């Protein structure tokens, strides 16, 4: 079992799926969460959420303009956010993004 990630904006659900790791732009700098991480709630600043996917993704599946595929690694996507909040509980990561 891996981690579940949801990235949600007021307008739509940007991403939902299984991930290996998530790197987030915290107020004090970048931080990463992995499976088994302790529960956390943290504010996020403007920046990029780097997502290490469980399985490779086809760039045509990325429908949101906020998401870009990593050209060197098909298992990595990046999501641009203008801030928000992240909650991690029981290997489920929810990013409420602006």
What are the key terms here?
single chain; 98 residues; mainly beta; ATP Synthase, domain 1; 5-stranded mixed β-barrel; 7 strands; 0% helix
Structure description:
The protein has one domain (3-97): ATP Synthase, domain 1, CATH 2.60.15. Strands 1-2-4-6-7 form a five-stranded mixed beta barrel. It is built from no helices and seven strands. β1 and β2 form a beta hairpin. The radius of gyration is 12 Å and the shape is globular. The protein has strands at residues 3-8, 13-26, 29-34, 40-53, 67-69, 76-89, 92-97. Helices cover 0% and strands 64% of the residues. The mean pLDDT is 91. The chain has 98 residues and is an all-beta fold.
Compute the number of structural domains: 1
CATH fold assignment = ATP Synthase, domain 1
CATH superfamily heading: F0F1 ATP synthase delta/epsilon subunit, N-terminal
Order of helices and strands: EEEEEEE
Helix/strand-derived category reads mainly beta
Could you tell me how far the N terminus lies from the C terminus, measured between alpha carbons in angstroms? Answer: 29 Å
Widest sheet, order of strands: 1-2-4-6-7
The whole-number mean of residue pLDDT values reads 91
Helix content: under 10%
Beta-strand content estimate: over 45%
Oligomer: single chain
The stretches of 5 or more residues where confidence is low (pLDDT under 50) are none
The total of beta strands comes to 7
């Amino acid at each position: 079992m891996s981690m579940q990630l949801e990235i949600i904006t007021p307008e739509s659900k940007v991403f939902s799926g299984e991930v290996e790791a998530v790197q987030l732009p915290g107020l004090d700098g970048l931080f990463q969460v992995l499976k088994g991480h302790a529960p956390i709630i943290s504010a996020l600043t403007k920046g990029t959420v780097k997502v290490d996917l469980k399985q490779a993704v086809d760039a045509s599946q990325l429908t949101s303009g906020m998401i870009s595929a990593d050209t060197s690694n098909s298992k990595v996507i990046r999501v641009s956010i203008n801030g928000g909040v992240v909650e991690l509980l029981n290997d489920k990561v929810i990013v409420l993004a602006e």
